[in-house]
Model the fold of this input.
Amino acid sequence: MSTPADVALPTAHIEIWSDIACPWCYIGKRRFTDALAGFPQRDRVAVTWRSYQLAPDTPAGLNKPEIDALVEMKGMPAEQVRQMFSQVSATAAQVGLDIDFDTVIAANTFDAHRLLHLAGDKRDELLEALFRAHFVGGEIVDDREALVRIAASIGLDADQIRADLDSDAAADAVRADLLEARQLGVTGVPFFVANRAVAVSGAQPEDVFLVLLERAIADADSAEPVVDPVADDADGCAGDNCVV
Done:
């Protein structure tokens, strides 16, 4: 039986936990966005980006190159870190992203996540701008004036954003996302959850995201939750470690 034209079909909800400091989240966002753009029922999909912090103890204002920070934090040889970054950059280039780890500055991302919660319907656009600023532009994304500039570049009001960042605005929303991640057992990002019933972890290939979207629609349309696994974990970041 067909659905009457004036009856709204159920919406499939996709929640995505990610961190601005996670290169695989940047890659995963591009792959997911491409999959969603080609998905026939994309108008039935609502996407919510949620906050996650890989290294919450990173001091704001550290202003240290990411390579140096990882060498110090992990005790890894600099050449090993550069090799790891080179592999991630090569994967990013396959989806049109020009990640330049030589310019990346280690940062605490809490304020950047607050900013995302304050961005309203520009949240997706702002997330893209933050990724680009961090991984391509060498911006220091825990510097509030840098965050104001990034927000203004996508049309947000600079004075309002500055005032919000100088207050505790949206701090509770970020903490709520972090708590939900712990409750769901999220240990690495990017992490994609459909209708709180089906999940995949990592920067999956585009075809896996298409399967996730199909399962999400099927779950929204069904009285019984769809709980079959979609795929094994893919490349992602856990703690201060990014798997390559």
